[in-house]
C-alpha cells in the first residue's frame, strides 16, 4: 500500500528516513528494553540507534541542513514515549529531526553506522559500543584511559586505545586501579550503574576526590555512604534531543535547545572523524531476518 509522505512532515525541519531496506540497519541498545520495561508506553514505537536512506526532506531542512534525498544517514531517537509515540526506529520509516542525524561516510557499512553510539576517565565496563567509542574520543581529547571488562575483551579494548584493562568482577578491582594510577585517578565514567560497580569506581578515585559520572542516578541507599570529596553526576543522552524528558523522579529534564544545538555541531565533527578513520565502529554481530520474524 502506498502512503503519502506529507503527513510524515508536520515540521519542515524534519526528514523521513527509510530504515527497512536490504542495506540499512538498527542496533540494539540497553535502553530498548529498559525504557518500555521501566516506563511502559502502550502504543509507542521502540528502538533508538539506526542507519538508513533519506527519502524525503522538509522545506526548512532542505535549506539549513546538508541532507538530500538518497543520502546515507545514521542517528539515535528518544523512543518509547507517550508525547511522541511515533518516535522510534523499530519500524520501516523514521521521522527524524534533520540536525539530529549525521552523514554516513562511504568507508562505513550500514551495520557499523547503526552501531555507533553518538550520545557519553575510567570506564565501567567498556567492552560495549558506548565504551569503545568513548575510549577513542577520550584518546583524541588527550586522556589516558583505564577500563574494566572481562579478560576475554582486554585485547579488544586495548586495540581501541585503552592503556590498561582490569577484570570488573575482581573483589579488589577498585583498589587495583587506584594502585596502577599511583592514587591519582580523578575521573570515572560508569556505564553500568550497579551498587557493586559504583563502590569499585569510588574506591579507584584518588584520596583528594574527583568526579564520578554514571549513566543512571546513584541509588538512594548509597548516596549517604559515599565520599563527599567525589562530585557525583549522571548523563542522560536523551537530553541531546533538546526536548523535554518526561520521565519520573530525578530523570525528568526540561527542554534544552542550547544543548541540542551543541550536539548538532558535534555530530558534524563525528562524521568527519569517522570519514578520516580516526573513529571506528564497535565490532558488530549481524542478526538475519526482517521486522516480521
Please specify the SSE layout and strand pairing:
Elements: E1 14-18, E2 25-27, H1 31-38, E3 49-57, H2 59-64, E4 72-76, E5 93-97, E6 101-103, H3 110-115, E7 122-124, H4 129-140, E8 146-149, H5 154-159, E9 164-167, H6 173-180, E10 187-190, H7 195-204, E11 210-214, H8 220-223, E12 230-234, H9 257-275
Parallel strand pairs: 7-8, 7-10, 8-9, 10-11, 11-12
Antiparallel strand pairs: 1-3, 1-5, 2-3, 3-4, 4-6
Helix pairs in contact: 6-7
Provide structural commentary.
It comes from Podospora fimiseda. This protein folds into 2 domains: 6-117, Alpha-Beta Complex (Quinone Oxidoreductase, Chain A, domain 1), CATH 3.90.180; 122-234, 3-Layer(aba) Sandwich (Rossmann fold), CATH 3.40.50. The protein is 27% helix and 19% strand. It contains 9 helices and 12 strands. The protein has helices at 31-38, 59-64, 110-115, 129-140, 154-159, 173-180, 195-204, 220-223, 257-275, and strands at 14-18, 25-27, 49-57, 72-76, 93-97, 101-103, 122-124, 146-149, 164-167, 187-190, 210-214, 230-234. Helix 6 runs parallel beside helix 7. Mean pLDDT is 83; it is low at 119-126.
Amino acid at each position: 500500500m502506498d502512503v503519502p509522505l506529507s503527513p510524515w512532515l508536520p515540521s519542515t525541519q524534519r526528514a523521513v528516513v527509510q530504515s527497512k531496506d536490504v542495506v540499512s540497519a538498527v542496533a540494539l541498545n540497553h535502553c530498548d528494553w529498559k525504557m518500555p520495561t521501566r516506563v511502559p508506553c502502550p502504543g509507542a514505537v521502540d528502538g533508538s540507534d539506526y542507519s538508513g536512506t533519506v527519502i524525503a526532506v522538509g522545506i526548512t531542512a532542505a535549506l539549513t541542513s546538508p541532507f538530500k534525498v538518497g543520502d546515507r544517514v545514521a542517528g539515535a531517537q528518544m523512543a518509547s514515549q507517550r508525547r511522541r509515540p511515533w518516535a522510534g526506529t523499530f519500524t520501516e520509516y523514521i521521522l527524524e529531526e534533520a540536525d539530529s542525524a549525521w552523514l554516513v561516510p562511504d568507508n562505513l557499512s550500514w551495520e557499523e553506522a547503526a552501531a555507533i553510539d553518538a550520545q557519553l576517565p575510567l570506564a565501567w565496563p567498556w567492552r560495549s559500543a558506548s565504551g569503545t567509542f568513548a575510549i577513542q574520543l577520550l584518546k583524541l581529547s588527550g586522556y589516558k584511559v583505564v577500563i574494566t571488562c572481562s579478560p576475554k575483551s582486554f585485547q579488544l579494548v586495548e586495540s581501541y586505545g585503552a592503556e590498561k584493562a582490569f577484570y570488573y568482577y575482581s573483589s579488589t578491582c577498585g583498589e587495583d586501579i587506584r594502585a596502577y594510577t599511583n592514587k591519582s585517578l580523578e575521573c570515572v565514567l560508569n556505564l553500568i550503574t550497579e551498587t557493586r560497580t559504583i563502590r569499585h569506581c569510588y574506591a579507584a578515585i584518588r584520596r583528594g576526590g574527583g568526579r564520578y559520572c554514571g549513566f543512571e542516578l546513584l541509588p538512594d541507599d548509597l548516596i549517604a555512604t559515599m565520599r563527599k570529596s567525589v562530585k557525583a553526576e549522571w548523563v542522560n543522552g536523551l537530553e541531546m534531543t533538546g526536548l523535554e524528558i518526561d520521565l519520573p523522579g530525578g530523570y525528568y529534564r526540561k527542554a534544552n535547545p542550547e544543548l541540542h544545538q551543541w550536539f548538532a555541531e558535534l555530530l558534524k565533527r563525528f562524521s568527519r572523524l569517522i570519514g578520516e578513520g580516526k573513529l571506528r565502529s564497535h565490532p558488530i554481530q549481524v542478526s538475519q531476518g526482517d521486522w516480521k520474524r
